[in-house]
Amino acid sequence: MQFLSAILARVALSLYFCTVFNRAIKGMYQLGIDIGSTTIKMALLKVLSNQVLSDQGQSTKEVVATAYERHNAAPAVVGKEMLKRMLESVEMGEEISIAITGSVGMGYASRLGVPFVQEVVAAAEVVKQLYPEVHTLVDIGGEDSKMIFFEPGRVPDMRMNGNCAGGTGAFIDQTATLLGVDVTEINGLAAQAEHVYPIASRCGVFSKTDIQNLISRSVSKADIAASMLNAVSMQVVSALARGTEILPKVLLCGGPFAYIPELRKHLQKAINVSEEDIVVPEHSQFVPAIGTALLSTKGQSTKYDISHARTLFDNTDDKTADLTHTLPPLFGSEEEYKEWLKDKNLTPTLSIREGASPLCGKGREVRYFLGVDSGSTTTKIVLLDEEGRLAYKDYSYNNGNSYNAFLSAMQRMNEVMGGDIEIAGSCSTGYGEQLLKTAFSLDYGIVETMAHFTAAKSMVTEVSFILDIGGQDMKAIFVENGSIRRIEINEACSSGCGSFIMTFAKQLGYEVGEFAHMATLAQHPYDLGTRCTVFMNSKVKQAMREGAKIDDIAAGFSYSVIKNCLYKVLKLQSFDQLGEHIMVQGGTFRNHSVVRALEILTGKDVQFSPIPELMGAYGCALYAMRQFRTIDVSGE
Fold first, then answer.
1. Is the pLDDT assigned to residue 8 strictly greater than 90?
2. Rounded distance between C-alpha atoms, residue 427 and residue 135, angstroms
């Protein structure tokens, strides 16, 4: 309200003088466009100058329009529509100056011939012109954070975070995903919190471990939400202040501060200032865009007439530009992809039927064998009949409670199977192996590598290498002469795992299935390298600045997953170490573009089952069946 009050006061004063001297108000507009990694923000200012006082340079500026939209990796398409809507009420013949800022904005500024303003400089300009009483500015965006210290007579001390997502909006989005809530619910949850727990905020990878631990301990979503906001605040202060005293008044800006008032409270507590010392502008999420508009008339600025400005984005698009970091396409066409799938079908090894087994109704008792893979985030169960055919399967999220997840899965299975079946053998594996085995008196428990090895060998008898990639972990099994020779697993890093792709798909506005299919048809996959989830943000921004299409970025992630595995986890010297019979498993390989990337990079043929995400549970069910047959044959 302080922001609007000051503006309205100046407008009123200007209008008063114009009335007294009976002279017209001449209007000129300034537009700031902030193109970030995920959103476009625009702020339109009208400059009202009294002609009588124009020789004294007296004027006032009013924010007359703002716009905020996600661009889903198509800034030109979205920007074109936003610009037309924003300027449609401005009269023809008016003049407008335009400048661009943002992490993706530099490339578009160059292509459009529009001045570029560094976003920290833009934010500083807002304080300089509109909030001279402010000593410290704190800005939290989607993937970056900034802190600016103002001292009279000195150049502002401007600081930005590095390539780490800790202390940013992306960190908040990630927590919402882990909690299974929309990010808009975070503020309401945090307001109900009773306790705050420590969460590592320096890296999205380490924070997942802390948050998953809190979820498994049945800590309330409200307490986790508040703990996360506290972690974001502490990270911003420690990473950017670095011992410098944060003096009031403190201006807070950026989307997270605008939409999550509870975040403001946690930061206020972290920097130990009173509520009166906090300034939150009415348009806090548009501060860089407003600052860019204010600076649009400086230096080598260009003035446009409104008709030209409305078509600014018409001369560019989001087609692939002259990309310098591309990889071979995964498939040449949709037809080639379909032909490839025909050769990968291992369905004949299974008779997948959800519901009653084909043996039911044959006039004899049917025995079933249950396999359970209780992971850190999901629970998978498989039920086989005594001929090894898949009678039932189930995949569900744990929501922090492995026991209840399995119990619910069994209830669903009983409803489908009729409830009156004989389970002759059962086996569990994974994160909750011992818990479920003890709580539900399951017959066996085996380590995950043995479960995956058993499943793979049942489908590819001469398997030489098994790669299992789940949501947050990776296992590589080297097989020699039918036995496991070596096992490799990833460390505390989620790059190269399913959540790696899922996180970025959601961030770019796509469902993971749609994102995966787009990757298979990309003709210019962008080489994103093998950087971790956090550092990958800057690589995606670079791709977007260069004009990479969303399908090229999606395909780049598929390559990145496999490159991370081959070069960072396995550190292979030669692909001959993999042998000639490669089998892949895990939910990540439901994304066929990842399978194909492995083939292209290694030059080898790769096999996968129609149920890659259930292979751990399938291996457990096979193990239980074989143990039963061994006992049955021996008569024990």
1. no
2. 63
- Dihedral sign (CA 458, 460, 466, 467): negative
CB of 469 within 8 A of CB of 502?
no
Calpha distance 35→524 (Å, rounded)? 23
Same domain, 203 and 344: no
Distance CA 522, CA 515 (A): 11
More confident residue, 410 or 70: 410
For residue 160, which of 139, 134, 131, 135 has the smallest C-alpha distance? Answer: 139
pLDDT in tens, 510-538: 888 888 899 999 989 988 877 555 556 66
Confidence of residue 33 (pLDDT cuts 50, 70, 90): very high
Query: Does 364 share its domain with 271?
Result: no
- pLDDT > 70? residue 318: no
448-453 mean pLDDT? 92
Mean pLDDT of 28-50: 86
Query: Do 496 and 390 have their domain in common?
Result: no
496 assigned to some structural domain: yes
| Helix H or strand E segment including 262 | helix 261-271
Shared domain for 100 and 147, answered yes or no, is: no
Q: Residue 27: which residues within 8 A CB-CB, separation 6 or more?
A: 46, 47, 48, 94
β-pairing verdict for 582-585 and 606-608: parallel
Instruction: Indicate whether 590 and 490 sit together in one domain.
Output: yes
How many residues make up the chain in this entry?
636
Q: Which domain, by its residues, includes 406?
A: 350-445+614-636
Q: What is the CATH number of the domain that holds 71?
A: 3.30.420
**In which element (H, E) is residue 2 found?**
helix 2-21
Q: Rounded to 5 degrees, what are φ and ψ at 138?
A: -125, 125
Last residue of a domain, one of 220, 250, 280: 280
CA distances from 241 to 71, 119, 247, 359, 449 (A): 32, 18, 11, 69, 46
| Domain presence at residue 162 | yes
Q: Is 40 exposed, middle or buried (0-12, 13-18, 19+ CB in 10 A)?
A: buried
Q: 50 pairs with which residues across the strands?
A: 25
Which of 501-515, 518-532, 595-609 has the largest mean confidence? 595-609
CA gyration radius, the chain: 29
66: Cβ contacts below 8 Å, ≥ 6 apart: 41, 42, 43, 44, 283, 286, 289
**Domain count of the chain?**
4
Tokens describing residue 65: 């329009």
3-state secondary structure of 12: helix
The amino acid at 555: A
Distance CA 333, CA 522 (A): 9
389 falls within a domain: yes
Instruction: Give residue 529's region: left, alpha or beta (phi > 0; psi -120 to 50).
Output: left
User: 0.85 cut: is pTM over it?
Assistant: no
For residue 470, being part of any structural domain is answered with yes
Question: 341 and 481 share a domain?
Answer: yes
Per-residue pLDDT reduced to its tens digit, 242-300: 888 899 999 999 889 988 999 999 999 999 999 999 999 988 889 999 999 999 988 66
What is the spatial distance between Cα 431 and Cα 372, in angstroms, rounded to a whole number?
Answer: 11
**Are 289 and 34 within 8 A, CB to CB?**
yes
Amino acid identity for residue 309 in this structure: A
Q: Name the DSSP class of 247.
A: P
Claim to verify: residue 65 and residue 94 sit in the same structural domain:
yes
Look up the CATH number of the domain holding residue 417. 3.30.420.40
Contact 75, 544 (CB under 8 A): yes
Does one domain contain both 431 and 538? no
